[in-house]
Specification:
This protein has 283 residues and is mainly α. It contains 13 helices and no strands.
Length: 283
């Protein structure tokens, strides 16, 4: 019986336990380092043994590293890029899902092909464009939140395939009924499809937000001024200056960075679960 149980079920539990340990141990180590008053690599254990908020106080009180400013910059960039990316992706997905036109299949395949290459491959061209744009419009140049956000908005159609797949599941009879009642294409999109697509919009919005808040490569190139940095660049500068003694401050900043993502997920979870369950129930 023991051998049979292990072959059928036991190995799954063992694999799940290994995966949980692999995921939880780094989180516990970061939490321990954040609340450890010494905050060094040598004094930090996986299981927290001492508790202190000194590193969080240092984040918000040290003028050499303006963490509140970095947090504000990051939230502004995430809000703008997420809104533009979800809106543009939804508009393009509506066109690809509901209309039939020449080049439709080629356009979808082109979007899929472009997503296979990271945006960092075009960093030289982007840097040159932003530099020249900054000479004409300083508000959109280097070391500006608007200029960096504009660079990230270049991937505004990253969620087209995901949203289009959801639009395809919505019956076309709803569109036809709205058109018969006098609705325009914009009316069908904003009044019919978008309310029904709240679950996929929540998912794509969360994915876009997580991708932007953790973006480091482009931010480290376009944002070098201390007051213009985002959380990813600012925290890297903290740990780079002293990888051993600044571990506690870095860990505290990492926990503060994860807080907006957790709060956003908790807020959007009701739309995801509520939309899926309501769609599965038939009156």
């Amino acid at each position: 019986m023991t051998v049979r149980w292990w072959r059928e079920v036991g190995w799954r539990h063992a694999g799940g336990l290994v995966a949980v340990v692999f995921a939880v141990v780094p989180v516990l180590y970061v939490v321990s380092a954040a609340f450890n008053p010494l905050g060094t690599v040598v004094s930090t254990d996986v299981i927290p043994t001492r508790f202190s908020l000194v590193h969080f106080q240092s984040l918000f009180s040290d003028p050499a590293r303006p963490f509140p400013r970095w947090l504000l910059n990051t939230l502004i960039v995430c809000a703008m890029v997420t809104f533009v990316q979800v809106l543009c992706s939804a508009l393009a997905a509506y066109a690809f899902s509901r209309f039939r036109f020449k080049g439709r299949r080629g356009g979808l395949l082109t979007l899929l092909l472009i997503q296979m290459f990271p945006q960092f491959l075009a960093v030289i061209a982007l840097f040159t464009m932003v530099t020249e744009l900054g000479e004409a419009l300083p508000a959109l140049g280097l070391n500006t939140i608007a200029g960096y956000s504009l660079v990230l908005m270049g991937g505004a159609l990253a969620q087209v395939w995901l949203i289009k797949g959801y639009f395809d599941t919505i019956p076309r009879q709803l569109d036809e009924a709205a058109v018969v009642d006098g609705a325009s294409h914009a009316g069908v999109f904003f009044r019919i499809l978008l309310p029904l697509a709240r679950p996929i919009l929540a998912v794509t919005g969360l994915l876009a937000f997580v991708g932007v808040i953790g973006e480091f490569l482009l931010a480290s190139i376009f944002l070098t001024d201390t007051n213009a940095k985002t959380l990813a660049v600012g925290l890297y500068g903290i740990i780079e200056s002293d990888r051993s003694n600044n571990l506690g401050v870095f860990a505290a900043g990492a926990l503060m960075t994860a807080l907006p993502v957790v709060l956003l997920f908790q807020y959007l979870q009701r739309y995801i679960v509520g939309g899926l369950t309501s769609g599965a129930v038939k009156d």
